[in-house]
């Protein structure tokens, strides 16, 4: 399980945001680690319409990527994956750094909890 959840300021142009390209790169980075099965990788994004950054300049933008992981990977494996995912995020939004940008990333390993899944995606891959 690797779930990518992107929050971003709504003032980012759609062609800059290019979510499907970003998601494809993140999914490939996850697969390339060898730690995450393709069928368990998901991405979603939420535009934030109400926000304020620093001095309130409406030109500033933010992107925040949270990666949720199922338990069971070592700290070294998580660190390696996190660096890979953040590199993808940085490269994707590199052109934005000609203005104020707040970019952040966090990876959370979910504690074992009661959890139910039903997934037949492997039948369609």
From TrEMBL:
Pfam families: CHMI (PF02962)
Keywords assigned: Isomerase
InterPro entries attached to this UniProt entry: 5-COMe_2-OHmuconate_Isoase (IPR004220), Tautomerase/MIF_sf (IPR014347)
Single GO term (MF): 5-carboxymethyl-2-hydroxymuconate delta-isomerase activity
Presence of keyword Zinc: no
Gene3D superfamilies with a match to the protein in the record: Macrophage Migration Inhibitory Factor
Protein name (database record): 5-carboxymethyl-2-hydroxymuconate isomerase
Organism: Thiothrix eikelboomii
